[in-house]
Amino acid sequence: MQEGVIPKCLMCNVGQLVPLSDYGGQGAAVHYKAWVCTNPTCGFNIKIRNGDIYLNEPITPGGNHVPRVR
């Protein structure tokens, strides 16, 4: 894969896989933590959590998230 090229989703062959980043428990950036298909009817996703790989977990709208009280 060439740098800067977004790969096509091999599950649906319609959408593209886009990388998502997040922050770790200590606040450090975690780049490419997940890849998600841009085709909403496909829903393919692959995520890394604590060194384990998860495929096709349910996707929920971010607007439903309730932040933790610190």
Features:
single chain; 70 residues; mainly beta; four-stranded antiparallel β-sheet; 4 strands; globular
Per-chain topology:
Blueprint: E1 17-23, E2 29-37, E3 45-49, E4 52-55
Antiparallel strand pairs: 1-2, 2-3, 3-4
Q: Largest sheet at a glance?
A: 4 strands, antiparallel
Overall helicity = under 10%
Distance between the termini: 42 Å
User: How many independent structural domains?
Assistant: 1
Polypeptide structure, described:
The protein is an all-beta fold and 70 residues long. It has one domain (1-29, 36-58). The protein has no helices and four strands. It has strands at 17-23, 29-37, 45-49, 52-55. Strands 1-2-3-4 form a four-stranded antiparallel β-sheet, with no helix packed on it. A hairpin with a 7-residue loop joins strand 2 (29-37) and strand 3 (45-49).
Brief synopsis:
Strands 1-2-3-4 form a four-stranded antiparallel β-sheet, with no helix packed on it. It has strands at residues 17-23, 29-37, 45-49, 52-55.
